[in-house]
Q: What sequence folds into this?
């Protein structure tokens, strides 16, 4: 196997193992946080009364997402830029270890405040995807980066196929129920922490440093130019791409943050059923990122793929809260998942093509920070609208936000000018 192919495989496997843990946690977290918030502290009672919440559990489930996203927004550009200077490998290892510790705290706690603390810790060190994206860009020619980013997306999809099924099974297994009943411990979160620890070990054992010494030296010399965000904004097309990443993620995260609550309220689904639903979404992501993305990348320019992805999300998002179970509801998830995949892959590829090698880590840090703002706004806004006006309203608002991103996408330059590689 060629060195570049071997490095791509190592990045893929590292991300896959880590995202298995992520896939275990995300479907279970809203219901878990909602359950803990049923025994609120005094300050939580005050917030419930001040906001006039009809279903406060939905709001606190959103806060479990937002606490992570706020810290990730602050830390991800710094981690990405740090990886430009010291290399991808050490930064990736530290971030994975932080995720492992955060999951361990989640598994041990029975108080909502510790859930927030665990999510904050994981958010601070949660820049591993942006660093992995930068590592993949390091070893991939600009013309092939849509396919390379598709590998990252495929790892995410596989994690969301196996992880939710595993999480639902672990939560309702005899051991999982015994630990929860007798000790207040949560087996799925322990397994997620172990997977992040395994991913950290894989980084040390398998992943070579992908960023050349020359590129690291150039990044150190250019550090005086300013913050990575300011550097990115100087490039034509990047302000629009960052805004699109923000708006698209805000809309999609409104769905992501309320999806478990939606099916729990509409269909009375518990942790096992929610895990299976997220597994179905993961299968859809794998089908797109693992295969269809290659066909799209060959035949459809990134700008057109971006527009198509946003359009699919815009049209099908508001249909979800009305679709009856089973097949209408499941079929609507197909264009939603594939539209999100088209948008994310095309956005990453276009942004990477506009950025020289020495700035790739900073770029993906900034790009993921823009998405991180969406992950802050989306779950918070979605769960607040859900708690105040009902589940359907949050999906209409999400569609409107995505529509704003679609309008902005029409302003992108049709032929981006590629920078010289370093």
A:
């Amino acid at each position: 196997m060629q060195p570049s192919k071997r490095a791509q495989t190592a990045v893929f496997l590292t991300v896959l193992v880590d995202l298995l843990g992520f896939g275990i946690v995300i479907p279970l977290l809203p219901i878990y946080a909602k359950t803990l918030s049923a025994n609120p502290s005094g300050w939580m009672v005050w917030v419930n009364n001040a906001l006039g919440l009809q279903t406060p559990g939905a709001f606190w489930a959103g806060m479990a997402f937002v606490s992570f996203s706020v810290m990730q927004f602050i830390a991800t550009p710094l981690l990405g830029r740090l990886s430009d200077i010291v290399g991808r490998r050490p930064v990736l290892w530290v971030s994975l270890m932080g995720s492992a510790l955060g999951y361990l705290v989640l598994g041990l706690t029975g108080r909502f405040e510790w859930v927030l603390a665990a999510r904050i810790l994981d958010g601070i060190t949660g820049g591993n995807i942006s660093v992995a994206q930068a590592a993949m860009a390091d070893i991939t020619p600009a013309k092939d980066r849509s396919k390379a980013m598709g590998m990252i997306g495929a790892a995410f999809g596989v994690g969301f196929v196996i992880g939710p099924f595993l999480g639902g099974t672990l939560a309702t297994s005899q051991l999982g129920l015994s630990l929860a009943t007798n000790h207040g411990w949560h087996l799925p979160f322990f397994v997620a922490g172990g997977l992040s620890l395994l991913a950290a070990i894989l980084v040390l054992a398998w992943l070579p440093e992908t960023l050349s010494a020359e590129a690291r030296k150039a990044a150190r010399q250019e550090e005086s130019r300013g913050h990575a965000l300011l550097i990115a904004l100087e490039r034509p097309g990047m302000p629009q791409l960052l805004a699109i990443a923000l708006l698209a993620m805000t809309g999609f995260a409104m769905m992501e943050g309320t999806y478990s609550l939606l099916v729990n309220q509409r269909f009375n689904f518990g942790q096992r059923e929610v895990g299976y639903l997220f597994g179905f979404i993961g299968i859809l992501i794998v089908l797109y990122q693992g295969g269809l993305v290659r066909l799209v990348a060959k035949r459809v320019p990134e700008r057109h793929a971006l527009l198509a992805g946003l359009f699919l999300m815009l049209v099908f998002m508001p249909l979800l809260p009305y679709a009856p179970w089973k097949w209408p509801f499941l079929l609507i998830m197909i264009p939603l998942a594939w539209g999100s995949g088209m948008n994310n892959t095309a956005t990453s590829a276009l942004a990477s093509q506009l950025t020289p090698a020495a700035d790739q880590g900073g770029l993906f840090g900034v790009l993921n920070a823009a998405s991180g703002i969406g992950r802050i706004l989306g779950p918070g806004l979605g769960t607040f609208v859900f708690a105040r006006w009902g589940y359907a309203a949050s999906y209409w608002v999400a569609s409107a936000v995505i529509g704003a991103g679609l309008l902005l996408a029409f302003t992108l330059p049709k032929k981006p000018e590629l920078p010289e590689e370093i």
